[in-house]
Specification:
CATH topology of the largest domain in chain A: Bacterial polysaccharide co-polymerase-like
Largest interface: A-B, 37 and 55 residues
Radius of gyration of chain A: 40 Å
Order of helices and strands of chain B: HHEHEHHEEHHEHEHEH
Number of strands of chain A: 6
Structural class of chain B: alpha/beta
CATH topology of chain B: Rossmann fold
Shape of chain A: elongated
Order of helices and strands of chain A: HHEHHHHHEEHHEEHHE
Largest sheet of chain A: 5 strands, antiparallel
Helix content of chain B: 25-40%
Strand content of chain B: 15-25%
CATH architecture of the largest domain in chain A: 2-Layer Sandwich
Oligomer: heterodimer
Number of strands of chain B: 7
Largest sheet of chain B: 7 strands, mixed
Distance between the termini of chain A: 32 Å
């Protein structure tokens, strides 16, 4: 009851924090940079090359792809490569406060809440990871959402990200294939030498024993040399096949990056819903203002040590109240009320 | 003792003590005086004073002392209201005494001259009837008189004089407008002069700890008149909360 009395007595004081909260929240949101999103969809054929381990067994390919891209985004070199290959770098050069958000986005408060500007690379490395978001649409479809203050920057950065990631996967795959080629090349050389030695040994023996090849019962040494030759031939052909496979894989590395683009980033990004954001922030401001208002009224109620009603006198002082006289706001009347 | 029509002497100092018997001034004249008394104070205040007197209750000669913890709580208004109600409702001859000798104000309230009052009475053997001024009907004012610096001495002399006994014999009810208990040097001494001190508390203004401090100065817990009560809640909400006032 006293709280309600305090509220009605200080209505303005109760309402002002709420109004201020909403206005500040709306102003805050209006001062934030524009937000445009560009979404692209990838079809992930298989798990990321080189990442297939027991630890990732059972995880959707799209999820593994997302992890891989996020992991790369944490590296400074990859972020800078994406930023500089796309429109983000030039945009940050021409808009030095584009990455400022929150209170730092408000022009008058930049000096108080803004952080010191580093080099362009530093800005890209800091800003880019915050621009990228992922949504797994299914086991094999991964949506990449890029948010930027400019639609061209959003779509361009999305393209640069996909291209950069593709290059990274290609490089990793090329390195793996190159290693395989080197390995199998050496193995093929060794097998070839061994095969030649086996052929040489058989030829030498047959030359020394001309009847050995025509003997009915067969010659044990000839048989042994033939078997060795056959084994070396098999080994050689097997290694040669693997070597050629590795060469083929390397030759086709560009088509084996593990994903393909279903929906390319749109040329112009889609503006994020300003009204929705404004509504959300406005409600937040309203709630904060309401909280402040309640705190103020609670404090006012708590510090009010006066008697408002007869019950206050009885409860606090234990005195009997003989009468309660209403407020004398009106001037005395010449003819009073009825006796 | 020559009798003069009461109505014709309104706002004029009396020159001699009126007769203790009721003066029959006629129904029309009395009704006119009652109507005039009603116009002196807001009806809300008169209703509250009436309620207070009914609850306190008394028979025969009596004296109320209206005091408060601090200044500005409505002592003089409540004292005036109680004096008027005593006459209007109970036909009691009532004397309203302005005992706030340091800051007298009652005479101004009724557009009466400050004239001679208690501060002059206590200095010599003078008839109290020469100092009474009619307010309305059978309600009389004994004002504080000329301002003086030695208020405690004047209060002490007043307490030791026969002024109160004379007034008690002449009037049915005496209502004291007392100085505040905490805001005056003579508040407690003045409160001891009356039979029933009444504490006025200004709703929403006077801190209750100060009221408690003032009440502790009195011999007995006084009845309280809560003045200026005003709920900020809209009527519909008061009804919904079961607060009928």
């Amino acid at each position: 009851m006293r709280f309600l009395e305090t509220f009605y007595r200080h209505r303005l004081l109760a309402i002002v924090p709420i109004i201020i909260g909403v206005l500040v929240a709306a102003g805050y949101q209006m001062a934030q940079p524009g937000s445009y999103t560009s979404t692209s969809s990838l079809w992930v054929d298989a798990s990321v090359p080189g990442q297939s381990t027991n630890a990732t067994a059972g995880v959707d390919p799209s999820t593994l792809e997302e992890y891989a891209i996020q992991e790369l985004l944490t590296t400074r070199s990859f972020a800078i490569a994406v930023g500089t290959s796309g429109p983000l770098g030039p945009y940050l050069s021409s808009h030095p406060y584009a990455e400022s958000t929150g209170l730092a986005a408000i022009p008058g408060l930049r000096s108080l809440f803004g952080t010191a500007k580093g080099s362009l690379d530093d800005q890209i490395a800091t800003y880019l990871p915050n621009m990228i978001g992922f949504v797994d649409a299914g086991p094999q479809v991964l949506n990449i959402i890029v948010t930027a203050p400019d639609p061209t920057v959003a779509s361009g950065t999305a393209k640069a990200l996909i291209a950069g990631y593709s290059a990274q996967v290609t490089a990793a795959q090329t390195a793996t294939d190159q290693t395989a080629i080197t390995y199998y090349g050496e193995q093929v050389a060794q097998a070839q030498a061994s095969l030649q030695q086996a052929q040489q040994a058989l030829s030498t023996y047959l030359a020394a024993h001309p009847t050995a090849s025509t003997a009915i019962a067969g010659d044990a040494t000839t048989t042994e040399l033939n078997q060795a030759l056959s084994l070396d031939t098999t080994t050689y052909q097997s290694l040669l096949g693997q070597y050629q496979q590795a060469q083929l894989t390397l030759a086709n590395v560009n088509s084996q990056i593990g994903f393909r683009v279903l929906d390319a980033p749109a040329a112009s990004g889609v503006a994020a819903s300003t009204k929705k954001k404004l509504l959300e922030v406005g409600i937040a401001g309203l709630l904060v203002g309401l909280l402040v208002s309640v705190l103020i009224l609670t404090a006012l109620t708590a510090i009010d040590r006066t008697a408002r009603r007869a019950e206050d006198i009885k409860r606090t002082l234990g005195l009997e109240v003989a009468a309660s006289i209403g407020s004398l706001g009106k001037a005395p009347t010449l003819q009073g009320g009825p006796l | 003792m020559s009798e003069q029509p009461i109505a014709s002497h309104r706002f004029s100092p009396v020159t001699r003590l009126p007769a203790p018997k009721r003066v029959d001034v006629g129904h029309d004249r009395e009704a006119a005086a009652a109507s005039e008394a009603n116009g002196l104070l807001p009806a809300t205040l008169l209703r509250g004073c009436r309620e207070a007197i009914q609850r306190i209750g008394h028979e025969g000669p009596h004296s109320f002392g209206v005091t408060s913890a601090l200044r500005g709580e409505g002592r003089s208004s409540v004292a005036t209201g109680m004096a008027l109600v005593e006459w209007m409702d109970h036909e009691r001859r009532t004397v309203l005494i302005d005992l706030d000798l340091a800051n007298p104000s009652l005479h101004q309230r009724f557009n009466l001259p400050a004239g001679n009052g208690i501060n002059d009475l206590v200095d010599g053997p003078t008839n109290v009837e020469d100092y009474l001024q009619r307010i309305v009907g059978d309600v009389w004012l004994l004002s504080a008189g000329r301002p003086r610096d030695d208020v405690p001495r004047a209060m002490s002399r007043f307490a030791g004089s026969h002024i109160l006994s004379q007034l008690s014999e002449w009037a049915d009810t005496i209502v004291f407008d007392l100085p505040p208990l905490l805001g005056s040097d003579v508040g407690v001494a003045a409160a001891r002069l009356c039979e029933t001190p009444v504490m006025v508390v200004r709703a929403g203004i006077t801190p209750l700890p100060r009221v408690k401090q003032a009440v502790e100065l009195l011999a007995t817990p006084p009845p309280v008149v809560l003045n200026g009560v005003r709920s900020a809640l809209p009527p519909w909400l008061r009804r919904a909360l079961g607060d009928a006032r």
